[in-house]
Amino acid sequence: MARLPKYEVELWTKQGSRIADITWLCKNIAFTEERNEAEDLRFSLDLDAFEGYMLKAGADPVSNFREGQTEIKIKKDGQYLFGTQLFDAPISLNQDNELTIDVVATGYLNFLKDRYPNPVIKYTNIETVEIFYDLIRQAQAVANGSYGLIIPTSGYYVTGVLRNREYEYYTSSTKLNMQRLTSLVDGNFDFKVLADKTVMTYESVGSPRTDFKLVFDRKNNRSSFSKAKLNRSSNGLYNSVIGLGSGFGGDMMLSTQNDLPSQIEFGLRQLPAQFNEVSVQGTLNENALARLGQVKKLLRLPQITLSGSDMPANGIEIGDLIPLQFTGRKLIEDMTGVYRVERKETTLDENGFESSITLYFEQMDAA
After folding, report:
1. pLDDT of amino acid 297
2. Phi-psi region of 128 (alpha: psi -120 to 50; beta: other; left: phi over 0)
3. How many Å apart are CA 146 and CA 136, to the nearest integer?
4. Rounded Cα distance, 103 and 92, in Å
5. Residue 124: which H helix or E strand, with range?
6. Residue 263 CB coordination number (10 Å)
7. Are 202 and 191 in contact (CB under 8 A)?
8. What single DSSP character describes residue 220?
9. Which residues lie below 8 Å from residue 205, measured CB to CB, with a gap of 6+?
10. Residue 339, φ and ψ in degrees, nearest 5
11. What is the model's pLDDT at position 367?
12. Between 99 and 277, where is the model more confident?
């Protein structure tokens, strides 16, 4: 049995000073990690115990627990896993006069969710990751616009692909513009915002896992995981993407990308997709073609939950490529294949150890 990792929860100021370790006060800790997306952290606190602890430690519970300011970091086995900012903290009062704070915090990437290019940013023949990082520079250069995100000077991944981009004010957020650069038809990459706010790029996060696989054998009633939902659906299946670029009415830029084999099999299914920040035809073609690649297949995605005891010794990271094997029934055997972990939801027990992990996958080679 793999040793379960131990997690800790800490409060930090937005200036980067540690306030307190509140692990022992946190109940029902759960968090979500997703590829190229902001983390999500949730837990509850007994208000009386929390306020008493903060006052005893000489920390004002109001100024040191403030939505939109206070930061909350997660440690795993003594190493910082990721950082978040306190987003929501409603207080509930029950019939026994118990006061509970339900904490929701969101990852540092969401600093850029409500930020927009100002006024217009244009790039001509610029490497993709340099555009990615410059979007952050531009966002943090305006008055009161810096959140302390750090652009590394070395060790980051560069695609080598040159692109033309033009971003107009208020058409799409800096976060969305960054994410779209990662998933084009060529020059794809991944990124993470680390717990110290460094934004790192990678050719691909995760790794192929040859040390274990997830198995369900209907014939012998054997399973290597606790439960699963094997999603099979045509919801979200489209084989013609109409990219809508900048402009209005007859002046709107358009790009229609089709997948003929899918159209023959399933009939024409059209998806208008907004890229209203795009004013270059080649860029619009790239975005529409990338979206087509994401939606042209039937949905065949397992959702698997493992107990803490099911976890492999090396854990499971976002981006890992994991073999899944389903045998004993035709309707599940066609979901056998290698899948990439796109999203991971972790729930901790009262001692800060993993009680369950739910994995959401991206299909790699399954039919």
Report:
1. 86
2. alpha
3. 9
4. 11
5. strand 120-127
6. 15
7. yes
8. T
9. 35, 190, 192, 317, 318, 319
10. -125, 150
11. 36
12. 99
Distance of CA 10 to the CA centre of its chain: 21
Q: If you average pLDDT over residues 111-123, what whole number do you get? A: 89
Flag whether the pTM goes above 0.90.
Answer: no
Q: Does the pLDDT value for residue 277 go beyond 80?
A: no
Q: Are 231 and 203 in contact, with CB atoms under 8 Å apart?
A: no
Higher-confidence residue: 106 or 284? 106
Beta bridge partners of 45: 26, 101
Three-state DSSP at 32 gives strand
- In the numeric block, which tokens belong to residue 223? 């399973």
Q: Token pair 């968090």 is at which residue? A: 31
Q: Which of 43, 121, 124 minimizes the C-alpha distance to 89?
A: 43
pLDDT in tens, 328-367: 999 899 889 999 999 999 999 988 899 999 999 987 644 3
Q: Report helix, strand or coil for 219.
A: coil
Instruction: Find the helix or strand (DSSP H, E) in which 197 lies.
Output: none
**Which tokens is 52 given?**
């008493």
The amino acid sitting at 239 is: N
DSSP H or E segment with residue 17: none
Calculate mean pLDDT across residues 308-323. Answer: 90
CA atoms of 165 and 5, how far apart (whole Å)? 43
CB 147 within 8 A of CB 193: no
d(Cα 25, Cα 295) in Å, to the nearest integer? 43
Q: How far apart are CA 45 and CA 31, in angstroms?
A: 15
Which spans in 296-333 are helix H? Answer: 330-333
Instruction: Please tell me which residue, 104 or 2, carries the higher pLDDT value.
Output: 104
CA atoms in the 13 A half-sphere facing the CB of 185: 13
Per DSSP, the three-state class of 52 is helix
Selection from 226, 205, 210, 217 nearest residue 336 by Cα? 217
Are the C-beta atoms of 150 and 197 separated by less than 8 Å? Answer: yes
For the chain, the average pLDDT equals 92
Q: 75 has which bridge partners?
A: 8, 80
pLDDT tens track for 220-256: 889 999 999 988 888 889 999 999 987 777 778 899 9
User: Which pLDDT band, with edges at 50, 70 and 90, does 2 fall under?
Assistant: low
Distance, in Å, from the CA atom of 201 to the CA atom of 159, rounded to the nearest integer, reads 10
